[in-house]
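Sample 1 of the test manifest.
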Amino acid sequence: MTMNVNEIIDPKNLVYAKTKILNDTQMHYCPGCSHSVVHKLIAEVIEELDIQEKTIGIAPVGCAVFGYKYIDIDWQQAAHGRAPSLATAVKRLLPDRCVFTYQGDGDLAAIGTAETIHTCNRGENIAIFFINNGIYGMTGGQMAPTTLNGMKSTTSPSGRTVPLGGYPLDITKLLAQLDGTCYVTRQSVHKLANIRRAKNAIKKALENSLLCKGTSVVEIVSTCSAGWNMSPADSNTWMEQNMIPNYPLGDLKDI
Amino acid sequence: MEEVRLLKGNEAIAEAAIRCGCDGYFGYPITPQSEIIETMMALEPWNTTGMVVLQAESELATINMVFGAAGCGKKAMTTSSSPGVSLMQEGISDLACAELPCVLVNVMRGGPGIGTIQAAQADYYQSVKGGGHGDYKMIVLAPASVQEMADHTVLAFELAFKYRIPTMILTDGIIGQMMEKAVLPPFTPRLTDDEIRIKYPWATLGKTPDRAPNYILTLELYSEDMEIINLRLQANYKRIQESEVRLEEIDCEDADYLIIAFGTSARISQKVVEMAREEGLKVGLLRPITLFPFPTKEIKAYASRVKSILTVELNAGQMVDDVRLAVNGEVPVSHYGRLGGIIPSPDEVLEAMKNLIVNH
């Protein structure tokens, strides 16, 4: 039986609605960017857990610096790389709240490496959402610590080489080794099944913050079609063929 | 209840912070101020007032922890010494931009570089002229005794929240390490989250249904909006300059010669005034207690009354610039200072004063 238009828009036949936690503000992200999907998932989980009043987000420096415009909760904006330090203080002073940072690879794995490692090592009861697209998106496509060998960027125009730029840094694997982390996982949002798994991971991480189980790290292997100079569809293919073999998806730690 | 104790200046800061209802202290060890975090850890205030005390991995972390805590409307502080405070400058600029109240302590040592662990006052420029990037200021208090280390800790939090501004206690290794008798402030309870929501409605304690989300931000892409933020900061600094100048004047009424000095230099200069007066020289001491706001008007008032002015500083001549601006050429101004952690004796300063200003 097919429904007519009036039946389709009848509220009682509603099968999906945008969460109210996600604002109606038009996002500034480029077409195909993973940020918007991850924002939506975080907003949905906040609604499902009914923790809007209890959740405080810490935005990074990078494309997600404007994260506060889209998710309807209290936010602080951190200096480049320091989001885990802000989150540490917020959670210690407000121990019943849910506190998360949202950071890119340059923020978390380059300038903020010390803060990332020591926050995880202290087992601060926060969730860290880590968007890894292997490039500095906001500043225009420079080499990041997670840029793959051979990958082109504006500061590795002929492709990253080890003698010049060192090795790609798998910081998530490193964080899984620390006693303070309780849940470390790597996900992606380029296919429906991956989006569902990523949402479950985000939910577990936010619950861990509420339950004070330790530090949770959710890496999302992501695309940056503008920085990679590819169409959104090609970016997804390139990510599957190149990023994911180097940053394999799945749980690294769950205790 | 107030309590009289014999203690170090650094210990007085820790004791006073806990007593005045500080919510969070974030520190990293550095000489000559490590007694502050050591005292905090020994007193275990998390068992009494519920205050959070945390030793972080660096001064970069501590200043950003202060940011996070202050953004929640909590009374937050950190302490360090010169090189550590240099590391904090980006964070201080962010705190100033976000208009977050907090207390920072710099127990100065000799620089530049890793320098020395002995006392100096060479971070005057860094403290009163901004220090980090952008046009901003902090309120800067300059204690000259262990008593003032305790009193200024309480006062710094009051001023920080009154004006929503980072407030620095600028002291040095002598005041931090020396022991004196001091009256410690009575215990004041920490504010509850509900009290903070009423007093500081901007705080990020979690969005409640009755209000829009709160944001603590320091990025503004549009220059027109960034200028508005800057103008608001400048208006705040003007209010502070008009209302919060504090100073002490010793034997200034009949003075022919005026010494201007703060902190340890003021303690030495107080002795110099006594010695000079025994020799029949009418010398007075003006001690700025607030370095920003600087007692510009008060100093200008002496320009027509004294023959000359000498600043005594443990640096190569920094505050002397502000004194010269205040008197605007009406009276000669000289500077005497020792560098790199050397503390001059009163005899040495008296001799210098005679050479530089009295016999000129």
